[in-house]
Amino acid sequence: MSIALCLAALWLPLCGMSALAGYGLGRRRTSRDGLAGEAGEAAHLALHIAGLAAPSLRTGLNRDSARRAVRHLRALLGTPALAITSLDQVLARDGEGVPGDEAILTEARAALRAGWPHVVTGEGVLVPLTVEGRVVGALAAYDAGAGHALARIATEVGRWVSGQLELAELDSSRRRTLEAETRALSAQISPHFVYNSLTTIASFVRTEPERARELLLDFADFTRYALRRTRDFTTLADELSCMDRYLVLERARFGDRLRFTVQVAPEVLRVPVPFLCLQPLVENAIKHGMPGEVRVVIKDAGPEAHISIEDDGVGMDPEHVRAILGEEPKGIGLSNVDLRMRRIYGHDYGLVVDTAPGAGTRIRLRIPKTRPQPSLV
Q: What one-character DSSP code corresponds to residue 96?
C-alpha cells in the first residue's frame, strides 16, 4: 500500500470519529458555548485520545499493543467495556461487563466472516479490523444501549484502528526491506577484494611473516564486521574502524601507488550511521582514483555529520554517475548506499557526487546525528 493511501486510511476515519464523537465523548460533556462548543470540545478530546492510542497500534496487532491501546479506545467510544481480538484469541479487555473469551470470539467470528460490523442487540457491536483487505481481528464494544449510533462510531473507530495497523505493516515491510538490503550488501562484499587480499597476504608469508600475520588479522576483523548479522545501524567509529582495515589491506596490495588521509572530528564518532555506508564509497574512490590519493574528511556540522570522500583520479562523466544512481542496486556500490540513505533519512540525504573526466571525484553525504524513529527506518 502507498504512503498516500495509508495516510488517507488514517485521516478519513479520524475525521469521521471527530464528527461522531458526540455519541461517546460529547454525550458526557456540556459547554457554556452551546452545541458548537460541545462538538468542538468532543472533537478535540477524540483527537487527543486517538493520539494516545496510536503509538501502541503502530507496532501492529499483538497482545502487548492491544493491552496498551484498549483503555484509550474505550474512552474514545465512551462504552462501559471494550475488547480487542485477533483471529483466534482475545488480546485485551477493559471495563465492566466484558463477556468471557469464548463468548467474545463466537460473536467476533460472525463479524470476521461477514467482513462488516455485527450488532448484538442490547449487548454491543463487533467491528472487523483489516490490513490490506485481510481481516486480522475485531474490536468489540459493549453497551446495554447498543444501537445504530454506537455501530456508526464503532465502525469509524475500527476503520481508524485498521489504518494504524496498515501503517504498522508498512513500517514492518520497510524494515524488512532494509534488513534484506543490508544482508545482501554483506553477502556481496567484492569477491575480487577477498581474492586480492588473500593473494597479497600470501605474498608476504615468506618474506615478511610478521606483516602477513598482521594483515591476516586485519582481513579477519574486516570480514567479521562486514559479514556479520547486524542491525541497520552502527556507530561512525565502527564504520571508520572497518574502513581503516580495508585501506590497510588495499595499501598492502597497491603499495605507494595508493595514498590516503583521514580527518575526523572527534565529536561525531558516536553518531549512529547506516551499516556499511563508508567502505563502498572508499572502494569506489580507490577504483577510480588509482594511482593517486584518497581523502576522507568528516566534519561536525551542528545537527549533522558531513562526510566527504575524494580522489584525484580519472573522474567520471556526470551523466554516467546519474545513470548509476538511477539503477536498481545489485550489490555493493554507490547506488546501494544512495538508496539506503534516501529511504532512511529522506530524499534530501542522497549522495552528492561532484566529478568530471580528468577532474577526480568527490562524494558527499550528510548524516543527522539523531537516529530516525523505527517507523522511518
A: S
Give the chain's end-to-end CA distance (angstroms, integer). 17
- Quote the mean pLDDT of the chain: 80
Angstrom distance (rounded) from CA 198 to CA 103:
67
For residue 125 the three cell numbers come to 457491536
DSSP 8-state assignment for residue 348 = G
Q: Specify the amino acid at residue 119.
A: V
Neighbours of 355 (CB within 10 A): 21
Q: Kindly state the cell numbers that stand for 36.
A: 458548537
Is 254 in contact with 288 (CB distance < 8 Å)?
Answer: no
Inter-residue contact 174 to 342 (CB < 8 Å):
no
Q: CA 46, CA 19: separation in Å to the nearest integer? A: 9
Backbone angles phi, psi at 152, to 5 degrees: -65, -50
Over the stretch 277-320, which tens digit does the pLDDT of each residue have? 898 899 889 888 888 899 999 999 999 999 999 999 888 888 88
DSSP designation for 266: G
- In tens, the pLDDT along 109-136 reads 877 777 777 777 668 888 889 888 888 8
Whole-model pTM?
A: 0.53
Residues in Cβ contact with 225 at an 8 Å cutoff, skipping those fewer than 6 apart:
238, 241, 242, 245
Separation CA 325–CA 310 (nearest Å): 18
Cα radius of gyration (the chain): 29
Question: Cis ω on the peptide bond leading into residue 318 (within 30° of 0)?
Answer: no
d(CA 199, CA 79): 73
Q: How far is CA 276 from CA 56, 141, 192, 217, 261, in A?
A: 31, 49, 18, 20, 19
User: Identity (one letter) of the amino acid at 13?
Assistant: P
